[in-house]
Amino acid sequence: MKKKVFVPFLCFLLILEYCIITPQLTIAQEHTNVKSDKNVAGKLYENFIREKLRISPEDLPNLQRNGSLWQQMVKKWGSKPDDINGKSNCNSILSSTNEVGVSTGAEIESEIHAAINPTDPSNIVVSPIGQTGGLTVPIYYTKDFGKSWKQSTVKLGPKESSSFVVGGGDPVFAFDATGKLYFSWINVYISISDFSKQYADMYWAYSTDGGETWQREENDKIGGSVIQGQNAEVFFDKQWLVVDNTESQFKGNLYCAMLHADGEDGRIGLRTKSANSKEFTDTTLRPKTSFAFNQFANVDVAPDGSVNVLFFGSRKGMTADDMSFYHLRSTDGGKSFDSENMISPVIHPRFSTGYDSVTTTGILVNRIMPCPQFSIDKSSTKYRGRMYAVWSALGTNENNKRGLDVFLTYSDDNGKTWMTPRPVNDNTENLTSDQFYPSLSVNENGVVIITWYDRRNDVKNELTEYFMSYSFDGGESFIKNFAVSGAATDFSTVGQGNNGFGIGEYNQTLSTKDFAIPIWCDARDNDGNLNIYAAFVPISPSTSVQDVYDISLISENVSLSTPYPNPSSTTNNLSVDYFVKSECSVHIEIFSAEGISVKTLMNGFSTSGKHTVHIDTDDLNSGVYLCKIITPDGSVVRKFTIAK
Asked: How many C-beta atoms surround the C-beta of residue 413 within 10 A?
């Protein structure tokens, strides 16, 4: 019979990562404690969960219906706990062209995941952690390749009608080969009838209409936990999903890799929903070797149908300086793992001893993470089956002493051996600057796309842009790095609106045959308001910042068409359509490709609805131009060409 062990530092402490209303340790003190406490791994798990609550865990046992703490929560979150139950108070809409604003109002949304439909690339879904009015997971979808976006009306939360959501997050998607879409998230909640217990459940749902509507099975939990006081026996954290879309015997299987802390076992693991099943397995497949610390599991399926998991951990203990990435492989549909292989050792300021003084502006020390991502080439090129892994760190075997770099490695033998990792960012000879939180995608032609946050253009190492690069030779070399964000963010401001959580850790890059689609969040207004953006960037060996012209930061309240016809081959025949949801001031202006203003089309008050504006091109030479609309709700920029 399994021995039950309650783990105050392995499970309850995980819950603390979900908290955004909780007393904060000073950064220096917290980091020192993590390095010195004998239960160091447990201390680290504490911080992995602290952002996922919106009420202090210390306060939960004292919560009484209609008491003073209850009233404070109602006042702060704008609704009664009875009414929340997973409700999303975020009503922003993701909009797009090359760069796209997801939320442009007062909503604070960050730490995102996204996916693209393999049967219809015009269908893209995005979900952030919504941090206005509580921790929610709103879902945005487009069915026209980002020309317009809508928010699903689904309210994802616990099924229990008497529950009050006190935290959550970790949204993640996966499409299957037929276009069926899966989604997973975490809710931390309490029952209105019993405040002595908290529940932390990892759920899943599915959509058959591209993210517009969602269904849930009777057993819609991947895993769950009951927390009493500050103890829990089991906890599930930071999951990733993938579907087997190969022609293997396991086609249609849905795999979930996650951290599964269970009693004294804090290892990562894998759970499986077979193609014909309506629920996940209730047991977790784990590495064969014991680990003193595990986290950051990531999963993908190889062309042969094998399930491959990347994870981060230490075999010997947190003070043994053996933090490394590892790889696991299952060839029987997630029933068993081969022995793990080391990918690379890692020197990281959050997890390696001796680096307590290393800080990154805008990111709490206890939130500096390596954020690995893992992808396998499924193209028909010579690189088919190559496994890629990226992460951010100070180095591999030693500190490179230039700040955080984005590292890449790959394997051509099913993960048995790995290339020596090397930086993707090409500013390694510059002054110290941080490059962090990478995302990875490999398109159908085998092009490797990597994106990340980058501070190379600020000697103070604070102003942050979003960068990307391509490799057309299987990761051997990358084209010159370029920015896609259009504006830098002063990262000293990113946590002002969400208790230091800032941008979170995760962002996502998608791809089609012809486009890379990086999706990230920043706070370029430098007022703490975090918004989500997407860029639709052509894939070419010559792609550079000059190709990222169409930039939008818009809401459902404003849109702008590309001037038409485009390109224009005759004189004086251009028009552009714009839409404003309500009466407001509107300014529309034409700029040259160099950003010089050449013509004002409109500057005044507009009624609501759709309008058309004529563009007189008599005095404009042939070339590339930008049309920009500015309204109180946001602005949009569209690129067009005149060819007389």
From this structure: 11
C-alpha distances (whole Å) from 228 to each of 10, 39, 185, 467, 553 are 14, 21, 22, 44, 44
Which are the contacts of 577, defined by CB distance < 8 A and separation ≥ 6?
A: 560, 561, 610, 611, 612, 613
Mention every residue, 6+ apart, whose C-beta is less than 8 A from residue 357.
none
pLDDT in tens, 326-364: 999 999 999 999 999 999 999 998 888 888 778 899 998
**What CATH number does domain 560-642 carry, 3.30.420.10, 1.10.260.40, 3.20.20.70, 2.60.40.2550?**
2.60.40.2550
What is the Cα–Cα distance from 116 to 413, expressed in whole angstroms? Answer: 28
Structure tokens at 446: 């085998």
Topology of the domain covering 81-553: Neuraminidase (2.120.10)
Q: What is the Cα–Cα distance from 455 to 393, expressed in whole angstroms?
A: 15
Domain ranges of the chain: 81-553, 560-642
Q: Radius of gyration of the chain from Cα atoms?
A: 24
DSSP code at position 285: B
The pair of three-digit structure tokens given for residue 588, joined into one six-digit string: 């529309």
Name the phi and psi angles at 58, rounded to 5: -65, -25
In 3D, which of 593, 594, 468 has the Cα closest to residue 535?
468
Q: Concatenate the DSSP letters of all residues of 563-605 into one string.
A: PBSSSB-STT-EEEEEEESSSEEEEEEEEETTS-EEEEEEEEE
387-393: strand order across its sheet? 373-376, 387-393, 405-411, 422-423
The CA angle 402-404-409, to the nearest 5 degrees, is 110
For residues 98 and 468, the answer to whether their CB atoms sit within 8 Å is no
Span 363-385, pLDDT tens digits: 987 788 999 999 999 999 999 99
Q: Provide the terminal-to-terminal Cα distance of the chain, rounded to the nearest Å.
A: 82
The residues near 195 (Cβ < 8 Å, ≥ 6 apart) are 60, 61, 63, 64, 65
Q: Which neighbouring-strand residues pair with 133?
A: none
Q: Convert the pLDDT of each residue in 62-106 to its tens digit.
A: 555 555 655 555 554 444 443 333 333 322 222 233 444 433 445
The 10 Å CB-count burial string (b at 16+, else e) for 431-450 is: eebbbbbbbbbbbbbbbbbb
pLDDT at 27 over 80: no
Name the helix (H) or strand (E) containing 223. Answer: strand 221-228
- Report how far apart, in Å, the C-alpha atoms of 642 and of each of 43, 420, 559, 578, 593 are: 61, 48, 22, 20, 12
